[in-house]
Amino acid sequence: MVKVGLIIGSLRENSFSGLIADKVASLFPEGVQTEKIELGHLPFYNQDLDTEGNVPEEYVAFREEIKGFDAFLIVTPEYNRTIPAVLKNALEVGSRPVGDNAWDHKPAAIISQSPGNLGGFGANHHLRQILTGLNMPILQQPEAYISNIMNLLDDNGELTNEGTVAFLQSFADAFVALIEKY
Asked: What average pLDDT does the chain have?
């Protein structure tokens, strides 16, 4: 059984990123288990707190949780041409202390989405830079930028656009192939 952590870059209830993550999770084959990872409870990373006797329990628990996954699907909106602070903070917390990077060697795939035409291109590429620094193998192709997200959903928030669903299936298949290499 492969365990994939779903990381949503938005804290908003019923966010577009969460809806996409749910859809992709449903496209994984049997043998791939997914679980959402909560980010909003983490205090902002502060190295002064990350010393013996001071480490917040949230940091400790989060790092242990991350170590229990085989790979990560990250779905994020774009805020001001980059990733949301909550996502960056989670990546920082998991990568510390130096020498104990919980993300190390764990495959990742990125989907960015936006109500605009660029599909979160800036956020996607900034995130690729960060994950490379964390030593995470990243799905290179297909790249996933979901533009005009509101036009792809029905009245119930379901992703029903057949072309997008077919693309996400190919994305999920490629990600599983990457995970199998590790």
From this structure: 96
Exposure of 109 by Cβ count < 10 A (0-12 exposed, 13-18 middle, 19+ buried)? Answer: buried
Q: What angle do CA 78, 173, 6 make, to 5 degrees?
A: 45
- Ramachandran angles phi, psi of 8, nearest 5°: -105, 125
Give the separation between CA 120 and CA 44, rounded to whole angstroms: 24
Q: Is the pLDDT of residue 160 over 90?
A: no
Q: What is the pTM of this model?
A: 0.97
Q: Which two tokens stand for residue 163?
A: 């072309």
Give the separation between CA 138 and CA 131, rounded to whole angstroms. Answer: 7
Q: How confident is the model at residue 83 (pLDDT cuts 50, 70, 90)?
A: very high
pLDDT at 54: 93
113 touches 17 (CB < 8 A) = yes
7 within 8 A of 39, measured Cβ to Cβ = yes
Domain extents in the chain:
2-181
CATH number of 2-181: 3.40.50.360
Mean pLDDT of 84-111: 97
* CA 30 – CA 2 distance, rounded (Å): 10
